[in-house]
Design goal:
The complex is a heterotrimer of chains A (209), B (806) and C (291). Chain A has helices spanning 12-36, 50-75, 83-90, 92-96, 109-131, 143-173, 177-182, 188-194, 196-203; strands at residues 6-8, 185-187. Chain A is mainly α and 209 residues long. Chain A has one domain: Transmembrane di-heme cytochromes, Chain C (Fumarate Reductase Cytochrome B subunit, Up-down Bundle), CATH 1.20.950.20. Chain A is built from 9 helices and 2 strands; from the N terminus they run βαααααααβαα. Helices cover 23% and strands 16% of the residues of chain B. Chain B contains 21 helices and 33 strands. Chain B has a 6-stranded mixed barrel with strand order 26-32-27-29-28-33. Chain B has a 5-stranded parallel beta sheet with strand order 3-2-1-8-9, with helices on both faces. Chain B is globular and about 85 Å long. A 4-stranded mixed beta sheet of chain C has the order 9-2-11-10. Chain C has a 3-stranded antiparallel beta sheet with strand order 1-5-6, with no helix packed on it. Chain C folds into 2 domains: 8-33 and 41-228 and 236-243, Alpha-Beta Plaits, CATH 3.30.70.20; 245-276. Classes of the chains: A mainly alpha (209), B alpha/beta (806), C alpha+beta (291). Chains in contact: A-C, B-C. At the A-C interface, helix 1, helix 2, helix 6 and helix 8 of A face helix 3, helix 7 and helix 8 of C. Chain B: Residues 683-799 form the Molybdopterin dinucleotide-binding domain.
Chain lengths: 209, 806, 291
Amino acid sequence: MSKEKLISRYNAAERINHWIVAVCFVLLAISGLAFFYPAFFWLTGVFGTPQLARIIHPFVGVLMFLGFFRQFFRYWHHNLFNKEDIKWMLSVKQVLSGHEVGDTGKYNGGQKGMFWLMTGCLLVLICTGVIIWRPYFAYYFPIELIRVALLLHAWSALMLIAGIVVHVYAAIWVRGTIRAMVEGVVTHAWAKKHHPRWYREVTGDKHKP
Amino acid sequence: MTNHWVDIKNANLIVVMGGNAAEAHPVGFRWAIEAKTRNKAKLLVIDPRFTRTASVADFYAPIRTGTDITLLSGVIRYLLETGKYNKEYTLAYTNAALLVHPDFKFEDGLFSGYDAEKRKYDKSTWAYQLDEKGMAKRDDTLSDPRCVINLLKQHVSRYTADVVANICGTPKEAFQAICEHLAETSAPDKTTSFLYALGWTQHSIGAQNIRTMAMIQLLLGNMGMAGGGINALRGHSNIQGLTDLGLLSTSLPGYMTMPSEKEPSLQAYLDKYTSKPLADGQMNYWQNYPKFFVSFMKAMWGDKATADNGWGYDWLPKWDKGYDVLQYFELMHQGKVNGYFCQGFNPVASFPNKNKIVESLSRLKFLVIMDPLVTETSTFWQNHGEQNDVDPAKIHTEVFRLPTTCFAEEDGSIVNSGRWLQWHWKGAEGPGQALTDPQILAGIFLKLKAMYAKEGGAFPDAINSLSWAYGDPHEPKPEELAKELNGKALADLPDPKNPGQFLAKKGELLPGFALLQADGSTASGCWIFAGSWTQAGNQMARRDNSDPSGLGNTLGWAWAWPANRRILYNRASCKPDGTPWDKKRTLIKWNGEKWVGVDVPDFKADEAPGSPMAPFIMQAEGLGRLFALDKMAEGPFPEHYEPFETPLGTNPLHPKVISNPAARLFKDDKAQLGQHQQFPYAATTYRLTEHFHYWTKHARLNAIIQPEQFVEIGEELAREKGIGHGDMVKVSSKRGYIKAKAVVTKRIKALQVNGQSVHHIGVPIHWGFEGLTKKGFIANTLTPFVGDANTQTPEFKSFLVNIEKA
Amino acid sequence: MSLQSQDILRRSASPTQPPIAREHKAEVAKLIDVTTCIGCKACQVACSEWNDLRDEIGSNVGVYDNPADLTAESWTVMRYSEVEQNGKLEWLIRKDGCMHCADPGCLKACPSPGAIIQYANGIVDFQSEHCIGCGYCISGCPFNVPRINQKDNKAYKCTLCSDRVSVGQEPACVKTCPTGAIRFGSKEDMKEYAQERVDELKTRGYANAGLYDPQGVGGTHVMYVLHHADQPELYHGLKKDPQISPVVSLWKGILKPLSTIGLAASLLFGFFHYIGVGPNKAEDDDEEDKV
């Protein structure tokens, strides 16, 4: 039996929510990259046929947006920037070498940045996605707008993908993180190291390191 | 057409007036475009609307509907006053120099001899002064005031540019430009081709519209010339064939006249129609009338027609009056008609005052429809809401529908506007139970004959005597009918020039009408078609398009009546001395012995130049007529009469005689004429390129490209009435109303006429309550039941309506 | 002998050169002489007949244009413009449809390999079985031509009758045009003929007559002779200098390498960062809490 002391970070609903969004993202990224890069067009095969990929992509997009929308309201108040985050961000080099900086709450400056980036990208993606969605909605929009929407859709999707690469890497790199989203728990050590203020809040420990 | 479609490319000036060639004749219009692109021709369009033709024209001028005679008379005035006409041609080839009867006159809108009660003229003064031999007198110095040209000058002197502008609404500068363009082609090496169609014929003064233009062509020296002529663009692919074969109530094939009650005997009949010469040395071709007629009778009755029985003269019906469609439906409306055979005809849609037509059909006992399509006439008894608001329970007419094949489902010939008989081959079998028209008619004929044989009857002779020499009596073949129309020798025909030789042996098909005889030794169903199917085979099926002259006279392509001649009166393309007016347009020339050339000479082949024989060989004096003698109902000179429904309420030239004084108007229909106070807008009906008449609304592709009924109005009127693009509007005349979408356009402008502003409303036909297009109203619900005084062609092109937003 | 096309200049979403060995074919062109077109719509019907298309029976919207717009089942339509300039009314009638650009925006935008191909003769053809219905071609087209069919969600447009042309026949619209306003031949010949027409029009007072062969899209294989070549907009908004939209060029151009670099950089960074720094482990300093 483990002697670890664990803290609950994400409850089951949150974890399910996250992984729905994550799976959506993967599907969307696969099909989106296929539409964007001729060399990746074969990825549409994941959906059976290219036509199916084109048909399924926007529906998955809507699902992802709804999922993310729920997450947004769960976490937005944790993601407001404060002075500590600025300190964190200014010392990002140090952070990258494995040394935490500042009195980080539930999320650090990088995570908050990522949150807002994703939020922004998702908003752009859903709006432009509707505008370019054939055969249902595109007919209602002028061609010039559709063209801009196509550009923004691709651009924001690529931003999002790049962001998610960072997000995934960070989870892999910072050991103990994936467990938070899989089992819902983190170790005291993890929390104390990476999110000291949040650690104090959830444990009631007044002791500031 | 005196010329033909391809020949249009030779014109220097093309005037489209009383028609919309690009719209209604897009395929033939290619030659107008060729004239423009290859011959630097100018294209003029004169029309109430800026049409599809106008869209490719060099010049467009507006005109109020129904006022063409005014404008054209103004042109004649201009030509005569400025002297810009072909004087040599006019003197030699027209009746300009002939002297007119001393009592002939024109006063206050009427010519001499008018009987107001009968609405008819006594035409005895509409004649030449004759010498003691009965020949017309002429004064080649043109100094006699009774010379045709002097009377004409006087007659048209009223049609000044101001009068033209005042009546037609055509701006003076535009009129001046038209005159100048036309005058340029009085040069011997320049020609004008007028392209016209139903926009001229469908008026109460329709025939005179065309005559006025014909007079201009004579003055300009354009008749008989390549690139000139009078070119009626026929409204159906085979309507030329219809008139050629005499499918009019007082006609026989080949432009012969059906006997009337006034000619009780063959002799009386032949005396009347066999032309007597009016000048010495003329060909006067109608003097051969008995040969054409007797040959026709031999074709009709075969061996039963003999000299003793007047070639069966008694078996022909004798008319008391014309039974044109207006007359016939008037009788039907009066309840005097029991049954009606409607073959390839859709009167409910095609005839004026649709409500009267439906009422008339409702009074029949039976109606037989022979048609490939579901016509509105075949379902006139069905209620289709506002579009055909009848009560089927109250209609007792029994309707029989006999489906027929259409033209593409049978072999045969079609005569185009250029008089070409072109043989065609069936493209498909007819669907379902469809039979060809000859099959159906043969069936009816054989049944009637059997019934007469069994039951007897009042007058079985005509039916019993009819020749019916077809391989299968139930199905006369197109080839058999074509050969019958061409004609054959019934006996050996000796060659008068070579004793012992024969021009044709008994039983042979005739090579041409020159061989026809009045003694019963030849038969020909339609003398002008003689030569179309000879011993050498079916001439109509020839497809050699070689064109040695480059003038488009392809003598090896199909066959043109008469005698494969492509340009009528082509002797007039040469001066009296035989040299061509224009070397580039040499059609025929004298080779020292006879006339030869790239066309079949329309002249006595061995008549040398310099003889008195004149080129208009069908006329008794051999001349083109600026003065029409007694051939027209309303006068030997054209005169402007307002449409029966005029937006002016008067005739600015002679307020006492407003509309055609010789036109027939039935009492009930007179009561149904609208006045400009209630119906202030001038309306005109027309076709669109996308459809053919009431047929193609049954074809999906045509329905797609013009799916829904509309009317066209100018922007100014639309503003006044608060009508926008695509609004539904109600257009009404005294006779009924239609509802349609509004096409608001810059292409129809208000015209300033006689001190008032006249708006035009364009009403395309084509829609009805049957077919694949959106259901529509019959456009002819609006049109008046009155026709041209000569032809009884209804006045579809000029009537009054009101319009409001529906 | 292979039946396949081996004269393909370009193929959508295909980074490598498609079969091109038979590329010697001359460029073809359809020349539409607007000045001799009477707007009869025979070309529309011929197009539908040859290509077996039957559009809906629509309604009248207050003009002669019917169908009112191009559709997946109407690959060419006549556009009618009533223009009044200097007191002169003109009814300008233009046959609208695919222009077969030398630099086709549709092909550039298409994400599906081989759904749009450009033959060596210049014809730009849609291979419908490869179409995924995304509509990118519509945004790529500077002339607003392709249309998606509601029934199968595939894009359609004029093929320049590539089937007819490949066996030496002219497109159906050309064959049927009653006035000869539509011609077909090598692009060189068509330009030569157009010059004749332009010269002739100039003698009629159309000083600005000219050929419409817009270079912004590399020239087109459907060209117009216009009376007013200086004002193509008069002809129902024909663009004066059409180009593939810069937005589309950005999207299908620079964005691709930029994003490739960006994505690759982020992946490589992560990889090398991990190799260099190793995992970020939280030290277990809770030992005192353990028993």
